[in-house]
Amino acid sequence: MDDLDLHRIDQIKAALKDKKLVIVTGSGVTLNATATLSGDALDELSWTGLINHGLDFLVKSGKVEADDDDLRNARKKLKDPKPSSKQLLRAAGRLKELLEDTDQLSNWLDYRFGKLSKQVRHPGILNVLKSFHENGTQLLTTNYDDLLEEGYCKLTRIGRMDHQQLRKFQSGNLRGVVHLHGSFHDPNDVILDATDYYKIASSNDIQELLRSIWNTHTILFVGCGSGLEDPNFGALLDWAKEDQKNIADRHFLLVSTEDRFDFPRLMRLEFGTSYADLVPFLQRLLDDPRRPAAGPASDCLNSIGFPDINARRLNIADAHPDTCDWLFQTAEFIEWRDRTDLPNHNGVLWIKGKPGVGKSTLMKHALDHLENIFADHSIISYFFNARGGILEKSPLGMLRSIVYQLVNKDAVLYEHFLSMFREKKRLQRQEVPEWQESELKDFIMSEIRQWKRKPLVLLLDALDECNEPNVREVVRFLEDLSIYAVRAGGTLRTCLSSRHYPHVSIKKSLEFTVERIRDHDKDIARYTQERLIQMYDGVDREDIHNVTKEIRERANGIFLWVVLVVSLLNIAYDKGRVEAMHKTLEEVPNDLEELFNTILSKGDEHKDETTLMLQWVLFSRRPLGPEELFFAVTNWIEPKVSSEVIHRRITESSRGLIEVRKGYASVQFIHLSVKDFLLRNRRLLTLDPTLGPEPISASHGRLWACCWACIERVNTG
């Protein structure tokens, strides 16, 4: 970093100290916060990707035909690898017209941005922006999402059309985030195309605000580099270039060393080689003594984080609309929430249920609810995943995740852990030392024993997805935590979920069983009826009611059974109308494992490929990528094949029992019970009698033969 860069940093720090700093965030912030754990940005959040997403939404929702002329024209403008601003604006204009003509603008915006906060995998950028806000910085954004407001940071959202709020913001009497291009919460205010931009250009309130901050403040543009792809941003700077010629250059554009983004009137300031360097750079600007932002800080977090740390939560199905809310009305949940009769349960709530009953979806729904009602709490969650990598299903992974979340939410805890990290690094003489379970347990326990900070909620799903000794070890640790928290006078609520087996207990806790709850049965009926009505438009409602009633009675509370049966009914209806649907329902067994058996035994077409695909997912030492699985079971020679073809082949060949994980390049069984089913009662031998008396050993031999054949193909090719 040269003297000029250091001078610019000093300018920004001076503006921050004088409460004269304004940060404008662009889509790079959202792309960074929601990137996959391997670092890949969500394409649909870039400007081009967002327009394509809107066009796809219109087709998938049945509002516009795929061959519609306007839609095709819009797509044509987006096919250019580097579309111009004019092309993007025209495509956005087409999209806006189609959305408004079909009355879908609000629905699309909510669909794309409404649950974006659940996709935040890298909260560091949001946390540091919130810290700037707390230190007097004004925030503006060109983004439509609410991650800086109710979605994550809980700051006040200020609409671009709210005259009074904008005036208060400008005068310093209102703190919050101004949405220059509108928010998805206010669809009519969203700036989407060239016509919309005139709304900003002709808005006295916005123009006055922009002129004021340009003349009197220092502006730092964050996430507005090459990843922005927002033509409206360029128009904003054109305005500054023409109308503000006499103002000294004191506004900065943060860029990586690789970016060639450059604008007149903005001074480039490089934060590092990649987005991983952005948060530490911003933290240095804050000069926060509580948290060093240099290399050791990143190393410290990297030592406990891991790529799939949030993978399971992101892949759990959301609750169907108007379901699962019964949980919050149960006597057990209310007693746990309100901490009444605490000596009898120590703040522990344990939700139990059969495999496939829907516990994980219920826990994910509970987490969303808790984040809303306990905004002032530290909420820590971990979702065990027996189908994932080693850390996802181990106590070590759980402990690393808990500590990672704790130190990201509490600066004091971060300092404590950083000291521990430095000492460990000194002793082991490693850049990123390996942590032992005992060390992380001791750290958590020592903090809980003297817990006097904000209330803490700990939510852990699927304890049974550890092996049995590990389950008992985890439960013992959690029980100790609850006891020490009560003794310390701290507030700790712990919510657990598991199957009934292995049988593990805590001396003091609240418990209930999901499949015994009457409202859970009502959820099954609601889900079934709504899905059938959507699929069978025109079918007699009484007929649907009877089918729904039968499914509800036969489900025994197992939501996974219901989802699979409804899927089979959909297929039957597509092939043979109502009669085929009734015939399928008669043939479907009540037991979940027998249902798996029925699904796999229907039709012999491609049965060898089905068996081989199941074997690969069942016995691979690590989760396979979809491409790896595809080429392992097919004789595909061409090097290029679309992801759509691969995903469809996996779904069809596995009979719907294998899925591609959302946001992660790996495949897994749709539920742990599929793995249990295949490993029990010599099911593999039923699928393929040639496996002989030792089907598991024979399966490994078959996979070895596949690998060897692949090596020979490469060597001879």
From TrEMBL:
This is Nephrocystin 3-like N-terminal domain-containing protein. It holds the Pfam family SIR2_2. InterPro entries: NPHP3-like_N, P-loop_NTPase. Keywords: Repeat. Residues 322-499 form the Nephrocystin 3-like N-terminal domain. The keyword Repeat applies. PANTHER family: AMELOGENIN, NACHT DOMAIN-CONTAINING PROTEIN. The keyword S-adenosyl-L-methionine does not apply. It comes from the Eukaryota.
